[in-house]
Amino acid sequence: MENKNESITRQEDDFAQWYTDVCKKAELMDYSSVKGFIIYRPYGYAIWEEIQNYLNKQFKKEGVENVYMPLVIPSSLFDKEKEHVEGFAPECLVATKGGKYTLEDELIIRPTSETLFCEHFSKIIKSYRDLPKQYNQWCSVVRWEKTTRPFLRGSEFLWQEGHTMYETEEEARKDALKMLEIYDTLGRDLLAIPFVKGQKTDKEKFSGAQETYSIEALMPDGKALQSGTTHYFGNGFAKAFGIQFLGRNNKLENPHQTSWGVSTRLIGSIIMAHGDDNGLVLPPKIAPIQVVIIPIQQKRSEVLVKAKQYFDLLNKAGIRVKLDDSDHTPGWKYSEYEMKGVPVRLEVGPRDIENGVCVLAKRNDGQKLVTKEADVVDEVNRLLDVIHHELYEKSAKYLYEHITEVHTLDELKLALDKGGYAKMMWCGDQACEDKIKELYQATARCIPFDQLPFDDKCPVCGKKASKVVFFARAY
RNA sequence: CGAGGCAUAGCGCAGCUUGGUAGCGCACUUCGUUCGGGACGAAGGGGUCGAGAGUUCGAAUCUCUCUGCCUCGACCA
Hints:
By secondary structure, the chain is α+β, with helices and mostly antiparallel strands. It has three domains: 15-274, Bira Bifunctional Protein, Domain 2 (BirA Bifunctional Protein, domain 2), CATH 3.30.930; 289-383, Anticodon-binding domain (Rossmann fold, 3-Layer(aba) Sandwich), CATH 3.40.50; 402-472, C-terminal domain of ProRS (Translation Initiation Factor IF3). 36% of the residues lie in helices and 27% in strands. The protein is built from 14 helices and 23 strands. The strands form five sheets. It has an eleven-stranded mixed β-sheet, sandwiched between helices. A hairpin with a 5-residue loop joins strand 12 (245-246) and strand 13 (252-253). The protein is globular. The relative contact order is 0.11. The chain binds one RNA strand through residues 1-6, 16-17, 20, 24, 31, 33-35, 87-88, 90-91, 111-112, 141, 143, 145-147, 149, 152-154, 157, 159, 161, 214, 225-229, 261-266, 294-299, 328-336, 338, 347, 349-352, 359, 441.
């Protein structure tokens, strides 16, 4: 298989270039005239919509309600929580003029909306009867990033941010873990991406949070990609924003808070986790087109008629199907939809019609099979399922092969150079994290939930260590 | 913010060294032949050469300034 015209860079030649080629040539996005602000094209946005649909269902099962907060935050409000401000101030985009008038209280384009939610919560929460509040919003946020890459890091990105308030610490802690579980399931069931789950170290946690949890995906170039986070805030923000409720004991209390989010970075994970030298490979559940029908010799009327019958059959079965009867040659169409990662291709030509069959081809491994017309819906559904599992298994295998136990600094370096996670015992001292960063440009990705100590001292300082931590180079 | 690179048609580029009024491939439009792995022929349409200033009879080309973007490094979903 060779791309004659619009060839994309091969992964092994230049992985970063391959990535941008795929983003553009699969028509997921385009660059705009402002650095870091990308255009989500219909095909890319449709993937996001599938993610939204799935998550909205899961959220609503948990009692979460969708809301919408303003785009701008007065800096006087933003400044109320000290740690939070320090974390975000360097990357805020700030509006200083309204029309021709200079604004006294400058308006920050939201980099995240904790402060807006808190201000609102302070007005609507009076009693324990007003709790819990489980709010979510779909929106975009702006962070003035110095280096940007489509989907992975942008000055603006789309996300959902959930913000909750609970009566008790226990409920809030449970919420942060429950939402992490939902994200992990999203990876497994929808995106076919296995994540490593765990807690962030103090150094890596979110500004203002007491505890941060994350899901981390491992990319084929050996770098980790933080794909979603959940936070337990305690009642720090609540105190700073004066959120109080009268408890069951008739005493004023501060509620306990969480927030959680995933972003369009997930699209970047999908591209890298599954893509190959022919372009995108989309997991079936989020593929905007699950099956593309390519008629062969479509000028013969019986071919197009039959192709339309296949279209109706699949469409009625709830499968996202496209019939491409454009004027291009079949070969061109094969390449086009491979580039776009469509999981299953259905070919139908005169020979097939004579035999009452069609040809199904899988995007992920190129395998072709002939199917009777009567069986096509069942067979397509089966293939979509098979493809999902094959993608997941392949990623999972890669992940497990790239988690390396290390006992010394030399082993740590080897593991990082190989790519993937170095599984290390850590003393808990931030100085050791800093040292690893300085020496090998790797960060603590997380303290995994599965804690099975395999040594008793920290490879950096030699002191007693009881925590298992994953280090990796990251996006 | 440091380091590099690029800016000429929608995209990818040539032209610049040695100044003379813009070209190639792809894409696009029309017609015809094609169609089981990126088809072919014919005829077309499309560009104040990133912006500004300067040198010159004349600037895509030489000089200066500015701007934007991409890639790589320090921070973030």
